[in-house]
Amino acid sequence: MDGIRLRGHHLLCLLGYRGMGYSPEYVENMTAIHNRLRVTPQTPVMLVGGVDDLCDKFPLSQEYHCEDDNVNERDHMILEYLGIQRGDMLPWRNIQSQLATVFHPSDINVLCPTCSWRKYGVCAEGIQAIRDGQGLPKIP
Ligand code: SF4
After folding, report:
1. Which atom of ligand 1 is nearest to the CA of 10?
2. pTM above 0.85, yes or no
């Protein structure tokens, strides 16, 4: 089975994903990845630096930020906290378990100060959910 390529900060974005996104194509792709990880948590995930399988569908019509320094720094910081290296391949369930151990809901304010999605509170809720053993939520 093919793995999914993800960058560091998208591990947390997936916890907060509720079906909102940058375009219909972006949402379709992210929902498919989110569902695959939720239904098949043994899915292998390859940690990459820079653009990943979510960035691939970022719409050309919007301001591109996927290679900005502050985004790369966020990836680096999150992987460092997790003790995971770029190039590592792990089952999603192991990554989720590590996320639940390492991060607390309030960490989103420190990790993602410039992100426009932070204000919705869903990413912090997503961390709490996995800490409570709930896993990823079903996307309607
Ligand atoms: S605040 Fe933004 S970057 Fe941080 S986890 Fe949420 S969506 Fe991702």
Report:
1. 8
2. yes
